[in-house]
Amino acid sequence: MESARQCGCDCILAIGGGSALDVGKTAALAPLNRSVRDFLSGAVRATDPRVLPILAVPTTAGTGSEATVSVVFTDPEALKKASFRGDSLLPKTVILDRELLKTCPTSVLAHSGLDALVQSIESYVSRGANRLTDALALEAAILIGQSLPAALRDPDDSRVGEALLLGSYLAGVALNTSRLGLVHGLAHPLGARTGAAHGLLCGLLMPHVLRFNRGYDLEKSHDLAVALCAPGEDLAGFLADLLERCECPTRLSSLGVSESDLPIVAAEALPSGSTQANPRPVSEEDALRVLRAAF
Ligand SMILES: [Fe+2]
Q1: Interstrand relation of 70-75 and 80-85 (parallel, antiparallel or unpaired)
Q2: What torsion, rounded to 10 degrees, do the Cα atoms 280, 282, 283, 285 define?
Q3: Which pTM was predicted?
Q4: 57, 83, 118, 122: which could join 181 in a potential S-S bond, CB 3.0 to 4.6 Å?
Q5: pLDDT tens digit string along 35-51?
Q6: How far is ligand 1, taken at its centre, from the CA of residue 198, in Å?
Q7: Separation of 120 CA from ligand 1 center, angstroms?
């Protein structure tokens, strides 16, 4: 923000992965002359006509930050992730260029793709979902679920790159309204404590959260099974298998999480807006049980 103020920017061009886009979106708040902590604490809202217009160009297909009204920051001293929202953070222009994915390292493509897939699933089953977000989130799940394995096999395939970018964008539009679920409620405190890739944590947790949510929305679970695997097939099993096909670790213990972290993470996940949007109500004991299953 200081740099944007000093050079008198009249717009912000944000290019990169989710973190880079979030930094660019935050720099657009420069004319308000406040600190990031003022926005994180809620002292100031990121809704103001003076905020600079943002052009966003994602180089990963993951967070959907180019489509959202929110940004996420990590406080390395407090070992916490925190976010803030505001309509002014929504980019005015978005360019989805499939050519940019071709230089994305395979592990980043896998982790960011898993984040986008989890965001589409959590948006679809969220308590905040409505018919409009349902349409966006289900289409996003289809686009990402069908393209991610192919993109990992052949990152130069432009068709799957386009599908991934469009899918992550649509999931971002959906989650602005629907919010997410327990996976994201847990992934943020886990990521802040370990530094593990956000998408990797989301992909690892999703099968366990789906098992926890089982039975809470049979119709939507059926829709997702049809979209991603086959009617009646175990969606949690499909996603666990996808994680292995992406050559990702499948246990939290292999990501630097210690058993003594689990109760702290469970407690920190409870107040999260994502956890509160989970289709099945979540107690601290529930969150701890999911973490232990993934440990
Ligand atoms: Fe995410």
Answers
A1: antiparallel
A2: 90
A3: 0.95
A4: 122
A5: 999 999 889 999 999 99
A6: 7
A7: 9
Question: Ligand 1 centroid to 7 CA: how many Å?
Answer: 32
| Ligand 1 centroid distance, CA of 217 (Å) | 22
Which pLDDT tens digit goes with each residue over 165-184? Answer: 999 999 999 999 999 999 99
- 112 C-alpha to ligand 1 centroid (Å): 8
- How far apart are the CA of 48 and the centre of ligand 1, in A? 26
Taking Cα atoms as reference points, which of 240, 220, 36 lies closest to residue 130?
A: 220
Asked whether the CA dihedral 113, 114, 115, 118 is positive or negative, the reply is positive
Residue 148 in contact with residue 118, Cβ under 8 Å?
no
Cα–Cα distance between 97 and 102 in angstroms, integer?
Answer: 10
Average pLDDT, the chain: 94
Query: Ligand 1 centroid vs 47 CA: distance in angstroms?
Result: 23
CA of 85 relative to ligand 1 center, distance in Å:
15
Residues with CB under 5 A from ligand 1 (ion): 115
